[in-house]
Design goal:
By secondary structure, the chain is an alpha+beta fold. Helix content is about 20%, strand content about 30%. It has 7 helices and 12 strands. Strands 1, 2, 3, 4, 5, 6, 7, 8, 9, 10, 11 and 12 form a 12-stranded mixed beta sheet that branches. A hairpin with an 8-residue loop joins strand 10 and strand 11. Helix 5 packs antiparallel against helix 6. The longest helix has 12 residues. The chain is globular and about 55 Å long.
């Protein structure tokens, strides 16, 4: 597990105002308590606090997921933004490298899922399940490798179920996220089908983890303020994989094209796209 320091957290701040902080969560840090008693983000928030404030985490990311995560600076802001998350007023955009390109390349996944507490994972619901919950994800293939052996996919969850994106990619689309050993075969299966450049650039030098990155958060304005959009570039290992795969960007429109351009350049999204007429 990675250590958490005040200096490291401060460097990870992407956005801060009087109500909200957005961090770039690094890989290998758990958001909440783990069985091995390793450092967590929740237990480290005091390192970011100013003037005795109590910071409150607004949502979660898996241990090996990187990217944007929001924190409220006041109880009132926590209540406002928690309600926004619950009512689907917060847009969350993720980037994933998938083993194979989805077919169709764009679409919506809408299935019922069940959380298995003892295994700390989710599965697709069966007809006999009474504790099933709906889950929905919009996905867009931003770029694909030759022969569709891999792809860079934009994932926009409309619900917030445990491991939703990982489950949808692996068990509905049949295209597991690279490095996901819980819902898919992980990295070795891709190495058998792609150029050995990936191993040279990524696996040997940096180590391969889950290729899922919380790329952009779009939150409503607090009490009449302007909406907040925060984006952060994927980490270096993620982009080494993208470049080694020689992905070809698709012709897209509107915000999807806007995101694809910045994502493939390894940059944060800046500004808004012009929507198609």
């Amino acid at each position: 597990a990675r250590k958490v320091s005040a200096a490291g957290l401060k460097r990870a701040v992407l956005f801060r105002n009087e109500h909200l902080i957005v961090l770039n969560k690094f890989q290998g840090i758990s958001v909440q308590d783990e069985f091995d008693n390793s450092p967590t983000l929740v237990n480290s928030l005091h390192l970011l606090a100013e003037g005795g404030e109590t910071l409150r985490l607004l949502h979660r990311l898996d241990r090996n997921v990187t990217g944007t995560i929001a924190i409220a600076r006041t109880a009132e802001a926590a209540s406002f933004y928690s309600t926004a998350f619950q009512h689907g007023l917060v847009q969350k955009d993720y980037l994933a490298v998938t083993v194979g390109a989805p077919h169709p390349l764009d679409g919506d996944v809408a299935v019922d899922v069940v959380y298995i507490d003892g295994d700390n994972k989710s599965r697709l619901a069966r007809a006999t399940d009474t504790d099933r919950k709906p889950s929905q994800t919009r996905y867009v293939t931003l770029a694909a490798a030759r022969g569709d052996r891999a792809a860079l996919v934009l994932l926009q969850p409309q619900t917030g179920r445990k491991h939703q994106l990982r489950l949808h990619c692996a068990h509905v689309l049949g295209r597991p996220i690279l490095g996901d050993n819980l819902y898919g075969p992980g990295h070795p299966s891709l190495l058998a089908h792609i150029d050995t450049q990936l191993e040279r650039f990524d696996a040997r030098e940096y180590g391969v983890k889950l290729h899922l990155h919380a790329y952009r958060l779009r939150l409503p304005g607090y009490l009449g303020q302007k909406p907040v959009q925060v984006s952060c570039p994927p980490p270096r290992p993620f982009m080494c994989t993208v470049r080694a795969l020689s992905l070809t960007r698709r012709k897209l429109e509107g915000d999807d094209a806007h995101v694809a351009r910045f994502a493939l350049a390894g940059k944060a999204v800046v500004g808004k796209a012009i929507q198609p007429q």
